[in-house]
């Protein structure tokens, strides 16, 4: 059986099938910058916008949404700060600490979708830093998530991706190679 190609419309449909009704949240192809907008006047649904219509951006923003608790999902961008590209080494270290869990979950979702994951330090114009500790932290977080089990929402989407893309439902450490980062 041939696997479906990775189309933006598919990830949007899968997310919305899983979360539009129970969480009043829909995934939206966005513009230059991703953003999460809670429902409010003139906007009946919470909206998770991913950047440029990129499939990987959709998975990354979805990972942030899956991690955010109920209170955070009532705030624009979950109430988090974002320091854009061009960060100092100190700012980059803080960014990486915040990004470990979302990127680990994104990696798990990428495996479920059958696409290659690439860790992102998202600081092309900033001070150069060693990304190896961050990569190792993301890998260790993947192992922790596998051991502890995913949240109900994360597991719902993971299984939906597995079914749609014909991937195994099993989630094992052997599916993740730290040298591929």
Automatic annotation (TrEMBL):
The UniProt keywords, alphabetically, are:
Elongation factor, Protein biosynthesis
* Protein biosynthesis in keyword set: yes
- A GO molecular-function term, please? translation elongation factor activity
Do you know which InterPro entries this protein is assigned to?
EpmC
Record keyword Protein biosynthesis present: yes
Q: Which Pfam families match?
A: EpmC
Q: Mind telling me what this protein is named?
A: Elongation factor P hydroxylase
Protein's organism: Ketobacter alkanivorans
């Amino acid at each position: 059986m041939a696997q479906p190609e990775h189309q933006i419309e598919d990830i949007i449909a899968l997310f919305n099938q899983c979360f539009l009704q129970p969480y009043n949240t829909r995934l939206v192809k966005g513009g230059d910058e991703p953003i999460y907008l809670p429902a409010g006047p003139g906007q009946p649904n919470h909206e998770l916008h991913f950047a440029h219509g990129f499939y990987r951006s959709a998975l990354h923003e979805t990972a942030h949404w899956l991690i955010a608790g109920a209170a955070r999902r009532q705030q624009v961008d979950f109430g988090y700060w974002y320091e854009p590209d061009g960060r100092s080494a100190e700012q980059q270290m803080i960014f990486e600490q915040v990004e470990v869990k979302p990127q680990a979950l994104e990696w798990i979702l990428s495996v479920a979708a059958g696409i290659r994951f690439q860790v992102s330090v998202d600081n092309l114009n900033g001070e150069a830093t060693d990304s190896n500790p961050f990569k190792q932290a993301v890998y260790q977080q993947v192992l922790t998530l596998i051991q502890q089990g995913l949240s109900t929402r994360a597991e719902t989407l993971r299984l939906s991706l597995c079914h749609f893309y014909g991937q195994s439902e099993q989630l094992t450490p052997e599916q993740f190679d730290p040298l591929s980062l």
